[in-house]
Each structure stands twice: as structure tokens, then as C-alpha cells.
Design goal:
This protein is about 55% helix and about 10% strand. By secondary structure, the protein is mostly helical.
Length: about 70
């Protein structure tokens, strides 16, 4: 089973928001969730895709090439 088939809609929304905002706290605020909830979903996404998906650089969460390849056009 590939990673995309294991995603639920909330995880997909979080992934796209992280790519756009590059901040766990900003994504949490935008989605009305806690930062801890976003972190837990990111951990699940990392497990699904066997990739870090985002690398912390200063105050930003910079998407990896794998994360960018998963981005859904808006």
C-alpha cells in the first residue's frame, strides 16, 4: 500500500498547510488544533512516507523534496 492511500483528509490538509506556512504553531492556529496535535500528525506522516518531510531551520519547518512532491495544488 503506498503512502497516499493511507492518508486521511485531515493529514492531507495539515501537510499542505505545513508546506504553505512552514510553522507548526501557525498551522495549529489556522486549523483550530493544538501544536501538539499537529506534531503528532506530522509524526504519523513521517512514518507513512518514511521521510522527515520537514526539517527545522531556525523558526521554519522547511519541506523536503518528498514533502513538496506530495503537495496538492490549490
Amino acid at each position: 500500500m503506498n503512502g497516499l492511500s493511507r492518508l486521511d483528509i485531515k493529514q492531507l490538509r495539515i501537510l499542505n498547510a505545513l508546506i504553505e506556512l512552514q510553522s507548526l504553531s501557525q498551522v495549529a492556529k489556522k486549523m483550530g488544533l493544538t501544536q501538539q496535535a499537529i506534531s503528532e500528525q506530522l509524526k504519523k506522516l513521517r512514518d507513512i512516507f518514511d521521510d522527515h518531510l520537514f526539517i527545522r531551520q531556525g523558526n521554519k519547518m522547511v519541506p523536503t523534496i518528498k514533502a513538496l512532491s506530495l503537495q496538492v495544488p490549490t
